[in-house]
Structures are given as structure tokens and as C-alpha cells.
Design goal:
It contains 11 helices and 36 strands. The chain has about 700 residues and is of the alpha+beta class. The two termini are about 30 Å apart.
Length: about 700
């Protein structure tokens, strides 16, 4: 009755797959979708952590239960997602299942893995970067240099909706990416994109999009995708999403099986800057051709796909026959189900599934340009050795000419060696034959500055990345890392990315250079120094990082420690690497703490500790953004805590709203209310014209 409200209901959940049967109480359950909300066969979302924070079911927090009401074959979305994954793209997992609500059979559905902080952690090894959900209008068109200019909205909210780091609400990375697409010329685009975007991975996505006719994504309809800023590589990753309108499902009269591979986007005056720029650069155009060739001749041949299609069809057909909602939206019958695999049904089903595939393969083969592809190098990485330790280098390399792979190494500015890399499973390269190549360099005995690039013997002049990667072999001096601030009893101040109010501590880099944390440890006991290994993270000079002390290390990500902090008081310490026998870098023994008040150094890295009037996780221990010497007497703000909507004052006020770290968020004159619906959970400070202030908690 209220499908458009997105109201979440408390429900109980049972999962059975013939091997296990498990139930979970008090999950969140709601209708999901955009235009599909008005359909007879609804789609739903299950959330395991809405009413019990941090809870997961077999590693996932949410499940998308998609009705696939447009698709008479009930298979297109799964086929498309599987193709992305078979091409090595980090796309959501999918499976068919039968849905019952209150013991009533609701039909055959597809479960599509939800894209959130759990998803990006599982794919990229980190989840502290910006994650944008991009909906209709997200054409990646340049506006201006102001990052806030990209917080534009359509009728459903922000076009580029920030799903991680909402509190910071910083769109600088998105602005930088879009600006490169706008301003870099063709000769510089490859190296410019190399600094900020995983273009090689996107070329695979582009090939699959065009093969399956995914017109409701970025390329044609500027819709339905995610962008994730991978903080380990520094690059934005493109993640495909919502691919049910594929394989010939069409609402616009376009022959998707015939559409030209190299002129596929919207056109007609509408720019798709990312696609257009990539097609203008020979290197990228050739790489796209390589991936399309691989797709139609190796991964998605008609023989491979037809066999898979037949297996899935036979598995779901008996239940489609019993599906009470299958016929309600378009009058589909079981005969339509059978026919949809081999012939068009008219209306929006312009192709039979198998004929679409055959026709797309044939037209792609005819359209495919001859290409001469330079080796594709991606995911270059290395360890962070000190003196007397090996330097290990690893990279993903695809080479159509099967050349040997090398790391060209310079030491202190002079050429050192071309070090051969191997994909044999014994050279720090992962599994043999997985296209990851590895090598190691003998330990260096003195302080050394190293630079390296990767190349293949089939194209030795093409080195990757454009700018050599720099590695410094440093002495074993104790790094200037500090436990800078902590909160040992967090009940309603700030939540982690899972919505949990956990204890936390902040690490500050007071050194004059960046420090890698991945070989260092933190603990709440001096006699157990390796209790928690710090994340694989490069902490820049003068920067801060927050670690959640919640005992969830390994389950909720590498920024979640394997210990908690005691409110009554204990010790907390940072330790250096194991090979040095865990020397103490910094430590502090604290006494009983106050709930929702942090304790920290003033200034950063200093020797004086104090309870913090303004709490600053991840920022400098100052409150310079908030006026000093303001009166302590508060004015009335209600409701407080607030959970969205408006908060009200007992009289008309001129008010200024600050975040807990002193960031000015809002100034309003002569008002009795302010809208807090867009604020993330946490603590805020409101100051009126008389200097009186009140703390506001948003849940």
C-alpha cells in the first residue's frame, strides 16, 4: 500500500539451500527499486544490520531480491553479471532463488550482491575510500573546479550519491577525475588517467556493456553504476550495477545487437565523455578491441553461453510455472518463458535471448577493427622493505604477443637492472598462470632510493606506470608515530562505517615523510605486542588515521582492531615490525575515561594529554574552526538526539552549525528550525548569535 515510502519493516529471515537451513530474527525488510516499485512483481531488500548493528549473514549485510519483472527469461541480469566476473571485473555475485513471504510463494527471483563497504572491502582490500552510487544524469560531464558542483540532484536525490565518507562529504576525487576527462589532450590522457582511474579494468566493463546491450548504464543512459576510490592504489574503480535491461530488452527502438562497437554511446548531442575520450586514444581503442575479441572468441562464445543458459533454464522452469506474479505485469505465460530464449516476444522483448547472442557475436566480428595492442599492465604493487630486506614487485600483465615481463629498476638515479618477472607461482606472484607476475631484488645494505617501471619484451618502449614508482629503503630508526587521541567509551558520538558506536584511537604521523603502517602493530598489552597488525596503508606526513577498537579485526576490515579499550583504564601501544622484535614506538597508560569524551595530545604528537573539549577523530587536535571563549550556557534544541528531518529551537535564533572537528556546515538567520536530514550520524555543535552553544547528536 505504501511502496514508495521505502519503509523498513522488522522481519524474521530463513535461508535454506538444501544443505543448511538457518534463521535470523529482527532483520530489516523493504521494497526497493525506481520504476520497478510500481510493478506488480516487486523487488525487495533485506538488511541484516538495520536493527542489530554490525550483524552479517555469511559475510553480507544486505541482499537485493530482484523480481526481474521485465525479463520473461528471468536470466539476463545473472548472465550479464557473470560475464563481467569471468572477464576479471569485480562485479556483484548473483544466484536464482525462491522467495516466500509469510509462507506465501512470491516466485523466482535473482539475488544480486549489494554494493557497499563490505563489497568494496572484499574486492579491493579496503573500504575507507569514497563510494559513489551514480544514478540517472551521471554523465561525468565537467561543470567547474568546485567539488561541491558535483553534488547535483535529480528527483531521487544526488546523482553522484556518496555512500561511504558521508560525514566528510568531499567530492574532490570525483572532480579531479572528471576534470582530467575534460582537459587532458589525447597525447597526455593515458598518463593523466593513469594517476586516478583504473582504465584497463573499465575497458573490460565497456566491452561487456556493449556485448550485452546494457543501455541503462553509463554508456547510453548515464545511469546505474558505482565509482569507488581505492585508497591503496589511489585510483577510482568503476563497478557495474543493475543490468536487467540487457540482451535485447529495449524500450527505445535501438537494434542493440547491431549497434556499432566504436560509436555505441547516446550521441545526439549528449556527451559520454569517458567513452568518447577512450575511443579517441589509439592505445585505449586497441585495448578495448582486444577485450571485445577475447569476449566473443573465448569467454562468451555461443557454445559456452548456450550450454549455461540451458542448464539455468531447466533449473528454474518448474518454479516459473508456479510463480504467481510472473504474469501480472506483462501477461507472460510459461510458453512465453520458453519462447523468450529463442525468439522475440514483441513489446520490449525485441530479441530472443540466444538469437541476440548469435547476432551480437556476428556483428561484433564484422565491426571489430584490426588492432596492435601494447601489453596491458595493471595493479602494480610492492612491499615496503627496510635495510637488509628484499624488495618484492608484483604486477598484472596481459600481453597478446606473449613477451617476457621485466621490471626496469633505477637505484639512486642510475640504471640498476632489468629484472625478469615470472608467473609461475614461486616468485611472489600468486598462483601460476593467473597473469600476475612477480620478482624480488636482493636486500640493500645502505639507505637507497629506488624507482621502477614494468614493461614487456614485446613492446619495450611502453613502460607502466607513466611515472616510475618510488621506493625508499630506510634505516631502522623508530618512526615518529603517535597515539594521538582515543575514546574508550563511545555511546553516541561517532559511528564506524557499519553504523556502530565503537571505541577508537587515532594515529598521527609526526615524521617528515610518509610511513607505511603494514609492518607495525597495536595492542592493549605490552606483553602481547603483535595483537593487531596495522592496515596496509601509507600514512602521509602530518596526517591522521582512525582505528576502531571493536574486536572486529578481520571481520569488518583492516581498520578494525582485534581488541577494545577499557573505560576503566589500561594501556595502549604501537610496536614496530617483528624482525626488530617489536620495539615500542609509542605508548600511553590511561586512567578511567568519560563516556563520549576523547583524550588526546595537545598539540598533535605533543607530551601534554587532556580531555578534548572538541573531539577530532582523523583531524588535528585543535578546535580552530569553532570560536573560542564561547559561553557554556546552552539553548534548547529538540528533538535531541535527532534521527533526520528538522530540529527546533525554543526561540528564533541566528545559528551556526559546526561538525565536531570544527568544520562550518551551515549558517542560518532568524529561524526556529534547521534540516539535519543530510547529516551523518555523530556529534554537532550549534552556536547562536549570543555565543551560546548546544551539542546536537544525530543518529
Amino acid at each position: 500500500d505504501n511502496a514508495f515510502e521505502e519503509k523498513e519493516y522488522i522481519a524474521n529471515f530463513t535461508f535454506s539451500d538444501g544443505y543448511i537451513s538457518e534463521s535470523v530474527e529482527n532483520i530489516g525488510f523493504r521494497i526497493k527499486g525506481n520504476t520497478s516499485v510500481s510493478s506488480q512483481k516487486k523487488s525487495f531488500r533485506i538488511s541484516f544490520n538495520s536493527f542489530e548493528s554490525g550483524r552479517k549473514f555469511y559475510g553480507v549485510e544486505k541482499m537485493n531480491l530482484n523480481g526481474e519483472h521485465n525479463d520473461p527469461s528471468v536470466i539476463r541480469a545473472k548472465l550479464a553479471m557473470d560475464l563481467y566476473r569471468e572477464m576479471g571485473v569485480p562485479a556483484p555475485r548473483t544466484n536464482h532463488y525462491l522467495l516466500y513471504i509469510n509462507d506465501e510463494f512470491y516466485g523466482v527471483y535473482i539475488n544480486v550482491e549489494h554494493i557497499d563497504e563490505v563489497f568494496v572491502k572484499s574486492r579491493f582490500g579496503n573500504n575507507n575510500g569514497n563510494l559513489y552510487k551514480c544514478s540517472y544524469g551521471a554523465d561525468l560531464a565537467y561543470s567547474d573546479d568546485n567539488p561541491d558542483s558535483y553534488k547535483i540532484e535529480n528527483s531521487s536525490g544526488r546523482i553522484y550519491e556518496l555512500k561511504i565518507n558521508k560525514f566528510a562529504d568531499d567530492y574532490t576525487d570525483l572532480r579531479d577525475f572528471i576534470k582530467i576527462l575534460e582537459e587532458a589532450d589525447n597525447s597526455s590522457l593515458r598518463c593523466a588517467l593513469d594517476t586516478i582511474f583504473n582504465v584497463q579494468q573499465y575497458l573490460k566493463i565497456m566491452a561487456v556493456d556493449i556485448f550485452v546491450g546494457h543501455w541503462d548504464g553509463y554508456l547510453y543512459n548515464k545511469n546505474n553504476y558505482y565509482l569507488y576510490h581505492n585508497n591503496v592504489t589511489g585510483k577510482i574503480e568503476f563497478i557495474p550495477y543493475d543490468v536487467d535491461n540487457t540482451f535485447g530488452v529495449d524500450w527505445s527502438g535501438v537494434s542493440w545487437a547491431e549497434r556499432n562497437l566504436y560509436n555505441w554511446s547516446q550521441g545526439g548531442g549528449e556527451s559520454r565523455k569517458l567513452y568518447e575520450r577512450l575511443m579517441e586514444v589509439d592505445k585505449f581503442r586497441n585495448q578495448f578491441s582486444f577485450y571485445m575479441d577475447k569476449l566473443i572468441n573465448e569467454v562468451a562464445t555461443s557454445e559456452i553461453l548456450f550450454e549455461k543458459i540451458d542448464i539455468i533454464k531447466d533449473g528454474i522452469r518448474p518454479f516459473v510455472e508456479l510463480d504467481p506474479y510472473y504474469a501480472l505485469d506483462y501477461g507472460f505465460t510459461l510458453q512465453d518463458f520458453d519462447d523468450s530464449y529463442t525468439e522475440a516476444l514483441g513489446e520490449h522483448v525485441k530479441y530472443g535471448l540466444k538469437p541476440y547472442i548469435s547476432q551480437r557475436i556476428a556483428s561484433a566480428e564484422a565491426q571489430l577493427e584490426e588492432y596492435s595492442m601494447n601489453p596491458i599492465v595493471n595493479y602494480v604493487q610492492n612491499n615496503h622493505p627496510r635495510l637488509y630486506e628484499e624488495l618484492v614487485i608484483k604486477a598484472f600483465v596481459e600481453d597478446s604477443e606473449s613477451g617476457n615481463v621485466f621490471a626496469e629498476v633505477f637505484v639512486d638515479g642510475d640504471f640498476y637492472a632489468d629484472v625478469m618477472m615470472y608467473d609461475d607461482g614461486v616468485h611472489n606472484d600468486g598462483e601460476a598462470g593467473d597473469l600476475f607476475y612477480g620478482c624480488s631484488l636482493e636486500p640493500f645494505l645502505t639507505v637507497t632510493n629506488i624507482e621502477y617501471q614494468i614493461y614487456s619484451s614485446s613492446a619495450p618502449s611502453q613502460k607502466y606506470p607513466c611515472k616510475p614508482i618510488k621506493v625508499s629503503i630506510a634505516e631502522d630508526d623508530s618512526p615518529e608515530l603517535y597515539i594521538n587521541e582515543f575514546m574508550a567509551s563511545n555511546s553516541e558520538y561517532i559511528t564506524d562505517e557499519y553504523g556502530e558506536y565503537d571505541d577508537w584511537f587515532e594515529i598521527f604521523n609526526g615524521d617528515d615523510h610518509a610511513i607505511w603502517l603494514g609492518d607495525k602493530y597495536a595492542s592493549d598489552h605490552f606483553d602481547n605486542p603483535d595483537k593487531f597488525k596495522l592496515p596496509d596503508f601509507m600514512l602521509e606526513s602530518g596526517s591522521h588515521v582512525v582505528i576502531w577498537a571493536d574486536e572486529d579485526g578481520g571481520d569488518q576490515g583492516e581498520f578494525h582492531a582485534s581488541f577494545k579499550l577499557k573505560k576503566s583504564g589500561e594501556q595502549i601501544a604501537l610496536f614496530d615490525r617483528e624482525s626488530l622484535e617489536f620495539p615500542v614506538i609509542d605508548s600511553y597508560i590511561y586512567s578511567e575515561q568519560t563516556t563520549d569524551i576523547s583524550f588526546g595530545r595537545l598539540p598533535d604528537g605533543g607530551s601534554n594529554w587532556s580531555f578534548m573539549d572538541i573531539i577530532t577523530p582523523g583531524s588535528r587536535n585543535t578546535a580552530e574552526g569553532i570560536p573560542e571563549n564561547i559561553a557554556d550556557n546552552s539553548f534548547v534544541v529538540y528533538p535531541n538526539p535527532a534521527s533526520g528531518g528538522f530540529v527546533y529551537f525554543n526561540e528564533y535564533q541566528d545559528v551556526t552549525l559546526y561538525s565536531s572537528i570544527g568544520q562550518l556546515l551551515l549558517k542560518v538567520e532568524n529561524t526556529r528550525k534547521i534540516d539535519v536530514s543530510q547529516l551523518s550520524s555523530g556529534l554537532y555543535i550549534i552556536i547562536n548569535a549570543e555565543g551560546r552553544r548546544s551539542k546536537l547528536i544525530v543518529r
